[in-house]
């Protein structure tokens, strides 16, 4: 009797068929829909994960705590796990922002851990929450670009800021459908905050590659009202839907550790 293929094997084979390191030619809408459908069926056990249900009081607390107790706490790192790597296609759980041929990644978040606001230039990203609850805040750039130099006195003086529109601001609770962001819409710039222990499976196409203009950049968002702008391209009453974003250096407090993959082996 022929051994039944695992779900992660089916995911790998479909990605290998439709995704390329350059992203050209782009996959068809039908191929991308099939990818979402495969992801929708994947559960923690399919990739060797055990759902973490017990909260950990060493996190900083998503909704805030006493400042003194918060300083005394220690936040656990986000865990990433390598699955498989070959010359023409990489299947891995890896650190966001690396410039290898990464196309698949899983992040295991302890409560309160954060992946800061970052972008996916020219990329499409499929995200499947495997277990737990995760807050997602995401923006898309306003086009044509609206860029200002801050003249406000104080800490923000001299900053270059670009206007973005809020696309997503909600808590995802597993089980839920796969989320998709695109190069120009769907929340291409996003940040994650773990409300409970949770895990997210991401597929990025094409992968980050700095020499081809796909570099991961981190941002800080400011409320639209923080800066005075004449002739801004928004209507009165819509201010809360917009924010000013400024680039940051790679965050020094993004703490990750490597785990061990315990799911089904991928057959080449």
Strand content: 25-35%
**From N to C, what is the helix and strand string?**
HHHEEEEEEEEEEEEEE
Please describe the biggest sheet, giving its number of strands, its sense, and whether it closes into a barrel: 7 strands, antiparallel
Q: Could you tell me the number of beta strands?
A: 14
Give the CA-CA distance, first to last residue: 20 Å
What structural class results from the helix and strand content?
Answer: mainly beta
Specify Rg, calculated over alpha carbons. 20 Å
Overall mean pLDDT stands at: 79
Shape, please? Answer: globular
**Continuous helix count:** 3
Low-confidence stretches: 54-74, 84-102
Task: Estimate percent helicity.
Answer: 10-25%
Descriptive keywords:
268 residues, mainly beta, four-stranded antiparallel beta sheet, 14 strands, globular
Architecture blueprint of SSEs:
Layout (H helix, E strand, L loop, with lengths): L6 H12 L10 H13 L25 H6 L5 E8 L4 E3 L11 E6 L4 E5 L5 E8 L1 E9 L5 E3 L10 E14 L5 E3 L7 E6 L3 E8 L12 E6 L18 E7 L7 E5 L8
Parallel strand pairs: 1-14
Antiparallel strand pairs: 1-2, 3-11, 4-10, 5-9, 5-11, 6-8, 6-10, 7-8, 8-13, 12-13
Helix pairs in contact: 1-2
